[in-house]
Each structure stands twice: as C-alpha cells, then as structure tokens.
Amino acid sequence: MGDVAMTVPVLAAFFEKYPNVKITVLTRKFLAPVFEPFPNVSVFEAEVKGRHQGFLGLWRLFRELKSLNIDVVADLHNVLRSNILKSFFAFTSIPFEQIDKGRLEKKVLTALKGGELKNSLKSTHQRYVDVFSNLGFSFDLSHAKPIDVLITSNKVKELVSGVSKKKIGIAPFAAYKSKMYPLEFMEDVICELNKSKAYQIFFFGGGATEIKVLQNFDTTYKNAVNCAGLLTFQEELQLISKLDIMVAMDSGNAHLAANYGVPILTLWGVTHPYAGFSPFNFGKNEMLMADRSVYPLIPTSIYGNKFPEGYENAMTTISPAEILRNIEKILLSN
Length: 334
Known about the structure:
Elements: H1 2-5, H2 7-17, E1 23-27, E2 41-45, H3 54-66, E3 73-75, H4 80-89, E4 96-98, H5 103-109, H6 124-134, H7 154-160, E5 166-171, H8 183-196, E6 199-203, H9 208-220, E7 224-226, H10 233-240, E8 245-249, H11 252-259, E9 264-268, E10 286-289, H12 320-333
Parallel strand pairs: 1-2, 3-4, 5-6, 5-8, 6-7, 8-9, 9-10
Helix pairs in contact: 2-6, 3-4, 7-10, 8-12
C-alpha cells in the first residue's frame, strides 16, 4: 500500500504539467480509492489471485492491457510480475520503462555495520519521476500539491462534525514487529493524549488481531475512536484527509496522510528514512528514529524483515515523552 500511496504526489505534479494525459493504473481493486481525486486516472484491476495468476494469467493481462491502446508503460514496481509483462511488451512497439530501485545502493546502506550514515539515497518519489522522464514526460516534484478530498460519507461526517478538538490519527501497526512501536509504550502516549481532553484520537489498522487491540483502546479511552472495521478504505481516506496530525510507523498510513498535506510524525525502528521511503514532505513532517548508539547496525534492512537478535526492541529507545513533545510541537506549528 505504501508504494501505491507514494505515487500520488508524483501524479499530482505530473498533471500540473500534463493535464490532458490519461493514465491507467494497474493495481489491486482495493486501492482504487487512492486515485479517485484524479479525473484523468482510471484503475485497471490486477487479479493476481484470479484470472491474472501465473504465467498464463500474466499473458492474459498483457493482452488486456494491449487492447487499451496505451502509448507507453511506466513500471513503478520492477518485480517478477512486471518483468514478465515487460518481456511480453518487448514484442510490441510500446515503450516500457522501469524504475531503478537502487538495489545495490540499498544493499550498501544496510551493510554499514555501525558506520556513519552520510547521505540519504534518492527518494522513491524521485525514482518514480525518473521513470516518467525516461518516457519523455519531464516534470518537477516541487509542483506537487496536497490532494483535496470531499467528504461524502455520512459516517465520516458524523465523526468530524462539531469536533473542536485537534484530530490525531494513530496507526500503531506495521508489517514487521521491528518497525512497530511497542503497544504498551503507545498506550502510554494514548493515555496522556486522552487525559488532556484537548484531542480527539482516531485509530487506524486492519486485520482481526489489530482491530481487537484498537477496539480495546476505544473502550478504555473516552476521547478515542477505533476506525478499523468501522469505515471502508475510501471512508478512511476521507477521515485521514481531515486530521491535524498522523502518528504512524514506517508504513502505508504515513504515506496516505502525506498525500493530503497532513502533518506526520513517523517512528522508525530497524529501517531508516535514508533508504528513500520517508513520506512526501510538504514541510510538515517530523521523524523519530531508534538510537543508533544502542543499535548501531540500523538500518538492518530496507523493509524491516531482516534484523539481528534483539533489534526487534530498537524502538524502545524512543520514549513516549519524546513522542508527546513532538506531537505538541507539530500541532503548535501548523
């Protein structure tokens, strides 16, 4: 989801310069609401567990895409499936450009063994821009503007209407434990925010286990609402767009909030923003990272799936008090 969300500011900048170009996005149906703000974008569903599964399914997908009379292909993913599609498109005259993920640079970054972090790698957003540039569409990310979302859901209207408090989104989960702030620490943060009575807290997550945890928070804290399982993904995006701040891990929810110009506080464990995956910054973002003097091998991997024993606890070096200070700092400055 994060990779898909990061295309949004890129498309926003693209359409500032090329307002009449039509783009067809190949992705999962679930993610279609991400692209609703763009009238020139249509979503073509990739049924990777259905009719597009396997080699023959990808051949079928290729034929379906070719029938759309597309002029060029921008592969922003560069994975096995898209490489197979590239081999099919090689038999046509349709230009096919792929993202350079900088795999070697990232391998070097995660093999520092405690060395000094000197320079951030190229951002994923800029890598997306480079693909379009190679296809003849040059533009600058500085022209990206936050997306404006119209609230059409009655559920969301009920949640935000009449709320004079600052609206804080908290997305406490991530794909790997090494990227997730300990829940007991996060509850300390939630408890203090709830005590102040100046904030309305909204929780975001997914999956039965996550919903159960968030529902417990909802029940325990008066000024908190669990949105997981309550809202559709489209409704979640509408609510996220109206937040005053989003507190998230190195995860998709941070990127989703960034697209709407929502100020973000991201928490980082064994991954690091120098790998190029920090949320798009409209000048409102802050980041808190695990202490490398205690866990010097950070970043241990790009996605958080590889780390030495004990490093799953790296985020304990970020204190709840530090998070609360940064939330207050961001809210006062915006």
